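Review form for a predicted model. The reviewer records the input and the model, then writes brief findings.
Reviewer: anonymous (R2)
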Amino acid sequence: MYAVIETGGKQYRVQEGDIISVEKLGLLEGEAYTFDKVLMLAGENGVSVGSPYVDGANVEAVTVEEGRGKKVVVYKYKSKKGFHKKNGHRQSYTKLQIRAINA
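Model under review:
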């Protein structure tokens, strides 16, 4: 059985036991979280697609860790003008383990 969920403006295909990295949710380690925005469910009963969400379906997860990704260097310049700008960015994330998919 698997589901497609929506969080942080992105969609994720998840199964029980999967570990996914999503946009920062502000949770403590070991804290439970429930995704209500389930776009699709697939299992023994077939596939059910929501419009936009499947009624009564949710996905339960528990927080594994919160952290920040590797640094991405952003470098801008304009040729022949002497303009150089260097900037760095580290994206925050929440790592979750999927516990159950409830239909």
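Findings: Residues 2-102 form one domain.
Further findings: The first strand starts at residue 2 and ends at 7.
Recommendation: see findings above.
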